[in-house]
Amino acid sequence: MLTILFDGVAYGMLLFVLACGLAVTLGLMNFVNLAHGAFAMAGGYLTVVLMGSYGVSFYLCLPLAFLVTALLGAVFERTLYRHLYAKSHLEQVLFSIGLAFMAVSAVDYFMGARQQIVQLPPSLQGRVEILGAGIGVYRLFIIVVCALILIGLQLALTRTRFGSQLRAAVDDGRVARGLGINIGRVFALTFAVGSGLAGLGGALGAELLTLDPTFPLKFMIYFLIVVTVGGTTSITGPFLAALILGIADVAGKYYFPQLGAFIIYAVTVALLLWRPYGLISREGAR
Fold first, then answer.
1. Residues in the chain, pLDDT under 70
2. Rounded to whole angstroms, how far apart are CA atoms 26 and 22?
3. CB 253 within 8 A of CB 46
């Protein structure tokens, strides 16, 4: 039971890192980016190429995946996404899902359709005994890294000048501009960080998740579930939603394998019926 709990927490933590960038862009920037999974896929494939072709350490691939996908996100934000901020959500959805399909086709053309395998370093292999349960070292590593990311995000959004500028830009853009805040730069940096976190999640999950060209489409629904169930007004909501859904998915597939993914969707429906605006949301938020 404890092993399933740890596996579920690790999976939930990974879902949070993969989805928190979407929570930021959707909740704080009010932009629907369904191509978010493409940045996660980019981080995973970058890790595969660097480790397989150039012998780069897995530990070094993680920050590189964040930096490269963050830079890629900044380029896309300045050249493409910023023109869609004032458009309707339907136009944003159509545009971003088109980018996701383009990314799938490009990766399939250059890397092939086969599933990619990441060989973890020996230090992350094996299991350790905790309270009598065998816990995978790699899953413990994921939990620690994702916990540090959560703490860093919370501090950045609540205790830094940039976090204050971002909240001001979202709450009232005209007033923020009047105070001298460069909203374009704030949004560009926010989008870059969200994309970088997706890339980092893709690198962390390259061994745990199925990495192939259809990755952005397969996990798009999971990202949306985490953000919708958790709410888009904070980071804490998606984090709690990811933990609940991760544990429910792992436990459901272990105890009721014949039901497949039914469990996670059932839990999603139940949570949305209970909290239709998300686990943590401002009163009246939509």
1. 28, 132-133, 170-173, 281-286
2. 6
3. no
